[in-house]
Amino acid sequence: MTSQETMKAVGLFRYLPIDHPESLINVNIEKPLPTGKDLLIKVKAISVNPVDTKVRAPKEKTEDAPRILGWDVAGIVEQTGPDCTLFEPGNEVYYAGSITRPGGNSEFHLVDERIAGKKPKSLTFADAAALPLTAITAWEALYERLGVSRNADDNAGKTILIIGAAGGVGSIATQLAKIAGLTIIGTASRPESTQWVKEKGADHIINHYEAFLAQLNVIGLTNVDYILCLNSTDQHWQNMAEAIAPQGKICSIVETDQALNMNLLKNKSVTFAWELMFTRAMFQTSDMIEQHNLLNEVAQLIDNGSLRGTVTQRLAPINAANLRKAHAMLEEGHTIGKIVLEHFE
């Protein structure tokens, strides 16, 4: 095996609208070799997330070499770097990877073993590929940023509002919040998304296009202890400030287009936190291995039936045309659950 071997991938040279045929193209690139703690993965399935469409969104910049997107992968360890201790060739893994490195929309991919987990045994590669980014995000948001106890007894009577509960992260966060014993209010606005959120364990549904507090009052609540915002922080800021309990906690994963008025949280001594699941890999934090650990725990929850997968659409094979289709579906803004792609041609 030499570094001159090539592999198929889907990438871009220019940042274009998704309906442009060159927004994502089929390319052949050099097959990488693992060094350090990297695993070389034979990619079996991938998923798409809003981060893919944000990175690909039109801008003036151009690339000299094809940029490869994709931050949800399930595959098989082909080769390990010399410093690897957690995996060996033949192991089945799943992971989201790092935003600062090439993505996984390629036949082979490098990932630091500290942010990869053992694939759930009960899932196909396609079903497993839908989980890593959303599971890491939901887990870190709930248990680390919001500080929700993992002991259900501690959460008796406590409430969480999940804004955008039908999406990829919301679908996992709702289930994890249910396992944690929280009373869950999910937001949804269409019959099909409302049904999906209920099936994932939400106790109540409110409409994110209407004032939150009045809707909470109707179901007998004066406020909520936690809020997880998975959609338009700007749009929901005032509503969140009104709905959060004194000394409550808010976490968002969606960047803002304008400055937030943090003073709205002061009188209630409310905690606000951001969650970005790429932080640990991006900054090579000393606790990077926590993503390996949590992915292994998520796999156990899947395999014992406590947590269910979130795939709603499957495309094959993995190529530029199907990835453009998946990006277009995400950009429409009505996606429920996750879209996965499998099999390189």
Automatic annotation (TrEMBL):
Presence of the UniProt keyword NADP in the record: yes
Pfam families linked: ADH_N (PF08240), ADH_zinc_N_2 (PF13602)
Domain Enoyl reductase (ER): 19-341
PROSITE patterns recorded: QOR_ZETA_CRYSTAL
Keywords: Cytoplasm, Metal-binding, NADP, Oxidoreductase, RNA-binding, Zinc
One GO CC annotation: cytoplasm
Chief subcellular location: cytoplasm
SMART domains in the record: PKS_ER
Top-level taxon in the UniProt lineage: Bacteria
InterPro entries assigned: ADH-like_N (IPR013154), ADH_Zn_typ-1 (IPR014182), ER (IPR020843), GroES-like_sf (IPR011032), NAD(P)-bd_dom_sf (IPR036291), Quin_OxRdtase/zeta-crystal_CS (IPR002364), Zinc-ADH_QOR/CCCR (IPR051603)
Compartments (UniProt record): Cytoplasm
One MF annotation (Gene Ontology) recorded for this entry: oxidoreductase activity
CDD domains: AL_MDR
Quaternary structure note: Homotetramer.
Family: Belongs to the zinc-containing alcohol dehydrogenase family. Quinone oxidoreductase subfamily.
Protein name: Zinc-type alcohol dehydrogenase-like protein
